What does this fold into?
Amino acid sequence: MTIQHATLRQLQIFTAAARNLSFARVAEQFGLTPGAVSFQIKQVEGHCSFPLFERVGRGVVLTEAGRDLLEHATLILQALDNADRRMQALKGVTGGNVTIGLVSTAKYIAPHMVSRFQAERPGVSIHLQDGNRREVNAMVAKGEVDLAIMGRPLDADELLAEPFARHPSIIICAPSHPLAQAPTLRLSDLADSDFIAREEGAGTRALTDAYFQGQGFSPHIVMTSSSNETIKQAVMAGIGVALLSRHTVNLELALGMLSELRVEGLPLMRSWYIAHRRSLPLLPVHAQLRSYLLERGQAIIDSLHAGHRALAPGT
It folds into this structure.
């Protein structure tokens, strides 16, 4: 027997197991017992005549044969998924599922846009999957998500992206920071301040590095984090200042939990993009969501920020 005798279901189970490296998690995903998952994996190993996993301690890792099969199985499953999308598109289906990749900063605005879209199309189910800029770019390129809300894509050849809203970034500090009430500042005034930054690979980090390099400024970075929430809490705790998207901090600014440093040349203005893989046909519902964001995304963000400002003490 050869791997050609493996069923589609077996390839799906193997691929999930290879990515999760946990048979228990795969069992939960497919509604099977761990024993049933192990049986299906053994069937696939019998078809290809090689062990695909080896046990290391309490976990499993892929063998060389497993890594090779994963590469080919992913292409097979993706080709079948692309074919199914195309057939559905020809039917003109308007309901269904949409998987959206989000850079971590987008989670502060995307749910508000998605909720309004779903209010008009209650039959649509949305799944949100977040990561940093590099990770989301890879999700789109591999076809793991239908659409992505992100900054400018890293790979313009693989991805088709259009801007739909403004994306300002500012430097924030704790309200107790000595410069919090300064009417205007030059970046050089922050030479003695400690900075907190996003991790390498994040769009915000790339923006921060490019901005400081362009200004000939070397920030004293004392902490990095992959979480905007962690950075906000660290700033509130007085550990340092940070350059972040205004969308991540509007609520805290309105409530007086954070302050904006009024630095000359800020805010830095970027754009939000809605992106998808060039070679992947969009189902009607995907195209509808894309058009919805292009037409109404900025207005929804403006409305959200107006609501935050209304929460400010004394308003």
User: Anything to note?
Assistant: The radius of gyration is 23 Å.
